[in-house]
Amino acid sequence: MASKYTLISSQVLGSSAASVTFSSIPSTYKDLVLRISVRTNNAGDGDNTLLKINGLTSGYSYTNLFGDASTATSNNASSTTSWSIRVDGNTSTSNTFSTNEIYIPNYSGSTYKPASGISSMENNVANPVYTFASAYLLSNTAAISSFVLTPQVGTNFLTNSSFYLYGI
Amino acid sequence: MTDAPIAVEVNCETGEVTERPLTAEEIAANEAAAAQAEADAKAKADADAAKAAAKEAALAKLAALGLTADEVAAIL
Asked: What's chain A's average pLDDT?
């Protein structure tokens, strides 16, 4: 049970940006929590945010369980170049942003790095919110010291997208 | 003229925030990721269409054997 969230760093975009990096993450906490609320300039109601750790471009895998008010399904990706986080695109309802949390336990340990994620696309129209529950694994034993987040289809995170990194 | 895409970097140790233009390599990587997303979406759409077509064909064959819709539903 987590006892205390300490904000390590945060960034709220004052203008569009193509990537957001958290570098020199201290190794003094037990777990990390990354909370983001994002909208990209993709011309669709959704997009993915790609999360790369320590600059690695291999060893990532994940399984998503997701659904809306009427359907549920799942997908899986192995040996990918990043983790994927579902977020809002630019045809979602105006001024809505996704809500996402990635929890990474034992991030400075010397074992592979599993993580869990929960994501919702906010879209207040006929197509309701999509919610994702995700299981992630990075097959790498190095302590986590940096994150790089980029939109997958869009080219920019839009203004007021926010990124918060907590240590526990 | 389009502004160059910007990378925002937050140094968690010092709190320093820097903004810089993306490098050519980063732009290429982003474009590759977008192309991959498009290819993945097409592959999924193709697979879904093939699955739907196979189901439709199977249902037609069952109907040709004389099964009613209720009987087909019972074995699915």
From this structure: 93
A160 close contact with B: CB closer than 8 A: no
B10 touches chain A (CB under 8 A): yes
Order across the sheet with B6-11: list the strands: A83-88, A46-53, A147-151, A19-23, B6-11, B17-21
Q: What is the ipTM of this complex?
A: 0.88
Where residue B30 falls among pLDDT bands split at 50, 70, 90?
confident
Mutation choice for B interface testing from A12, A24, A53 by most B CBs within 10 A: A24
Domain assignment present for B66: yes
Q: Which of A42-46, A82-86, A157-161 has the lowest mean pLDDT?
A: A42-46
Instruction: Determine, yes or no, domain membership for B45.
Output: yes
Quick check: is B1 in a domain? no
> Are the beta carbons of A168 and A18 closer than 8 angstroms?
no
Please give the radius of gyration of chain A, using alpha carbons only, rounded to the nearest integer: 15
Residue B27 belongs to domain spanning? 6-75
Q: For chain B, how many structural domains are there in total? A: 1
| CB pair distance less than 8 Å for A23 and B15 | no
Q: Which of B12, B22, B26 sits opposite A165 (nearest CB)?
A: B12
